[in-house]
Task: inverse folding
């Protein structure tokens, strides 16, 4: 039997918020468990129930914060007190519950591998097949919509016939992919954790935003690249041209992480010539700044790679978008577009004072790029933080806002008429570009820059 537990954080903090911050009290957690137990009789009691019945989707957001915070907490203190680490693994495994089965997943030992952590995040005991993760009914709807050195992005439909995006990343293999070594489980944990934390910001009360792409689910699979995905890859290559290697060389033992995100639209680079005017461009800049500000306040967040390929834009009907910053509700005129920020492979944040970051201090190639202002931003970040990537320097977000203003000024727009409004907006955007670098953070820029008032 579980009983309410009140345990002291090793840094002296109350751990109730640490382990159960999506619920108000422990009693609510136990109520949830009781509900699960009462419903368990009608479902076979197997360790694969989560996958078979898709229950992870129902309680996914309950799992997000607990699991991601667990791993960062472990990384920080495992050398200090292995018993506390074991306690937290045993307690926060609550989200696992092996939902509706009436049993709990076995406790972990103190030393848990990165692979086991990834499988825990995926709520799996081991890798699935591609067909288990993407059934034929969904596979036939797959279309490639994007790519990066990390791998490929496809769109498909979910069980509710809603369009979703699948980011497929090869991991732990020996073969280079797109000129890069494959990510390890340890490296991919960084992106999983940050994706979960930012996705949860749309449910917060003090600092809330829906400006980061929503994470629906994630899976680890093993096998050759499916033929349907290769055909979708070929179609993309014919129509738009791909800079990636055709992913037909993976063998049956290759592992992939598949992150399922909400569909966020087209990236800003591909929206060049498709936005109606600078009126929409201003809304894009305002929404990006607001999202960064909320994440700064909630998580001491830096994106560190916010080029225009990592800003998604989609058309919407509602006229206003609300966000909450330090308890105050604010509203932005959408002008018919909604923005989602994506790709956190270089990002940095803090959870309860514990840092999650990607050390790129030795990535010489990243800082040698030429031909676009984007590459200068990497060098400016490195100069400002003295090549120490664990420290918090929110001015890096300001650097990317300066870059974004530069792109918006150079983009083409559908409405080419030089009305007085367009001329005034262009002048205001140029003033923003001149002014923005003087602010220490996106938060300060949002609250004080004339462009947003």
Result:
């Amino acid at each position: 039997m579980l009983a309410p537990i009140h345990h002291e954080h090793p840094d002296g903090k109350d751990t109730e918020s640490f382990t159960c911050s999506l619920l108000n009290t422990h009693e609510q957690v136990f109520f949830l468990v009781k509900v699960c137990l009462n419903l368990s009789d009608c479902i076979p009691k197997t360790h694969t129930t989560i996958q078979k019945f898709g229950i992870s989707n129902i309680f996914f957001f309950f799992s997000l914060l607990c699991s991601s915070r667990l791993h960062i907490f472990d990384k920080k203190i495992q050398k200090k007190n292995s018993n506390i680490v074991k306690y937290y693994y045993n307690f926060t495994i609550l989200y696992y519950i092996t939902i509706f089965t009436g049993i709990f997943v076995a406790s972990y030992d103190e030393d848990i591998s990165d692979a086991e952590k990834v499988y825990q995040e995926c709520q799996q005991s081991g890798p699935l097949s591609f067909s288990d993760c993407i059934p034929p009914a969904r596979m036939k709807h797959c279309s490639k919509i994007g790519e990066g050195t990390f791998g490929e992005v496809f769109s498909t439909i979910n069980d509710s016939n809603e369009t979703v995006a699948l980011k497929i990343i090869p991991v732990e293999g020996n073969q280079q992919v797109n000129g890069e070594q494959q990510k390890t489980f340890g490296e991919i944990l960084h992106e999983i954790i940050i994706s979960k934390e930012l996705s949860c910001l749309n449910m917060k009360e003090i600092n809330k935003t829906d400006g980061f792409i929503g994470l629906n689910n994630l899976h680890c699979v093993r096998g050759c690249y499916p033929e349907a995905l290769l055909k979708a890859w070929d179609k993309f290559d014919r129509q738009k041209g791909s800079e990636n290697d055709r992913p037909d060389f993976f063998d049956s033992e290759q592992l992939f992480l598949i992150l399922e995100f909400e569909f966020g639209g087209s990236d800003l680079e591909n929206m060049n010539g498709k936005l109606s005017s600078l009126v929409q461009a201003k809304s894009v800049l305002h929404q990006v700044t607001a999202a960064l500000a909320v994440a700064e306040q909630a998580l001491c967040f830096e994106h560190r790679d916010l080029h225009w390929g990592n800003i998604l834009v989609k058309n919407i009907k509602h006229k206003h978008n609300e966000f909450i910053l330090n308890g105050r509700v604010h509203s932005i005129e959408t002008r018919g577009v909604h923005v989602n920020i994506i790709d956190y492979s270089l990002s940095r944040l803090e959870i309860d004072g514990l840092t999650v970051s990607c050390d790129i201090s030795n990535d010489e190639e990243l800082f040698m790029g030429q031909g676009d202002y984007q590459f200068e931003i990497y060098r400016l970040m490195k100069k400002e933080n003295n090549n120490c990537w664990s420290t918090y320097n929110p001015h890096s977000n300001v650097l990317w806002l300066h870059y974004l203003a530069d792109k918006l000024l150079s983009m083409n727009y559908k409405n080419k008429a030089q009305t007085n409004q367009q001329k005034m907006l262009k002048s205001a955007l140029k003033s923003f570009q001149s002014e923005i670098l003087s602010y220490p953070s996106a938060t300060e820029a949002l609250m004080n820059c004339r462009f947003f008032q």
